[in-house]
Design goal:
single chain; mainly beta; 2 domains; ten-stranded mixed beta sheet; ten-stranded antiparallel beta sheet; 2 helices; 27 strands
Length: about 350
């Protein structure tokens, strides 16, 4: 069998996003602290600093061992600079009563001390929601489809919350929630967070030679951290991570055919579906495989976008069919060209305008 593409799993456990576009710093308009915990990737914090020019600076704890710069291709215009620095006094905790506490500080590349502290002290309950993060909505040059599933995602409450952000000694006011709508009858900041993340980079763009593999008697193949299911004719039926705290399943209806078994001037089209845990919804789309001589072209189009599973009036308002949350995957296109004889392959993603 031939494996046409796969996906990468990032062991990101927690993240928050503090926006201050309405009161920007001279260099940054947002900060995103992230927490990783993995034997290979490392343990520690990362802060993504969103720049005024659309790029990002990335500040990594020395305890993180990742060096994949292309992971930041989906953050605006991409990576500007990556810096190793100590993220001091870092804390990211959610209490049993639903109150979140987040703190971190570090010296940025301009020599300024950046300090952020969030401490909720609300009496009333808050209810998290499930979200496919629309990080890909502002990407200009994607190298993968960002399937960033955030469980128990929530917005920081205003009442009785201590929120302090300073850059170079200057106090920065975080943005308020952009719509005059209370969530769970409580007013919110636009600052949001999740302490339960599943981050998948689906179908990473690359150039190389596709791998051939021998399935077991059940038609399954294990390659790294991904497991594949093939049918008897060599068509790829589905793929999923071997180990994950949450479900992630990619299904190809009818099966993605083996490029070597296709006859000349032949074409195959069908649909695919990407699903996560119950309550998260799914992404759907269409795929096609065409062969002309030795050249085979594969395309994936997530034309169905994200179909959420809203469970409250707030999520029904936020996740309308034409909202950015649901529509951004529709603008992604995956193309792959394969030589059926040598299995040499080149793949890439591009964005197209939304038509509806």
């Amino acid at each position: 069998m031939v494996i046409p593409f796969g996906f990468s799993y990032l062991p990101l456990k927690k993240l928050a996003l503090i926006n201050f576009e309405k009161n920007p710093d001279s260099m940054y308009v947002g900060l995103e602290p992230q927490y990783f915990h993995d034997d290979d990737y490392g343990r520690g914090y990362r802060v993504i600093a969103y720049r005024n020019d659309g790029f990002v600076d990335v500040y990594d704890d020395p305890g993180l061992h990742d060096d994949k710069d292309d992971s930041f291709d989906v953050t605006g215009k991409g990576l500007c600079e990556r810096i190793k620095t100590v993220i001091e006094q870092a804390r990211f905790e959610k209490q049993k009563d639903g109150c979140v506490t987040i703190f971190f500080q570090f010296i940025d590349k301009y020599g300024r001390l950046i300090t952020a502290g969030i401490e909720e002290q609300a009496k009333r309950k808050t209810r998290g929601l499930n979200l496919l993060a629309p990080v890909g909505s502002s990407t200009e040059n994607p190298s993968y489809l960002p399937m960033f599933f955030l469980y128990n995602f929530d917005f920081v409450r205003k009442r009785n919350t201590k929120l302090d952000l300073k850059i170079g000694g200057r106090s920065i006011k975080p943005d308020h929630f952009p719509f005059p709508i209370p969530k769970d009858m409580q007013w919110r900041y636009f600052t949001r967070y999740s302490d339960d993340c599943q981050i998948i980079e689906f179908a990473n763009a690359r150039t190389g030679v596709l791998q051939e593999c021998i399935p077991d008697e059940d038609g399954r193949v294990v390659q790294g951290s991904v497991e594949y299911q093939f049918n008897e004719s060599g068509a790829l039926l589905k793929m999923w991570p071997r180990q994950s705290d949450h479900r992630f399943l990619v299904e190809f209806r009818g099966g993605l055919p083996d490029v070597r078994s296709m006859s000349n001037h032949s074409e195959y089209e069908d649909t695919f579906k990407i699903s996560a845990d119950d309550g998260m919804g799914f992404v759907s789309g269409e795929y096609s495989v065409r062969r002309e001589g030795r050249q085979v072209q594969v395309q994936l189009v997530p034309a169905g976008g994200w179909r959420p599973d809203p469970d409250s009036w707030f999520t029904k308002i936020m996740f309308g069919n034409k909202s950015v949350f649901c529509s951004w995957p529709k603008t992604y296109r995956y193309s792959q060209v394969i030589d059926a004889s040598t299995l040499a392959s080149t793949s890439f993603w591009k964005r197209v305008p939304l038509t509806d």
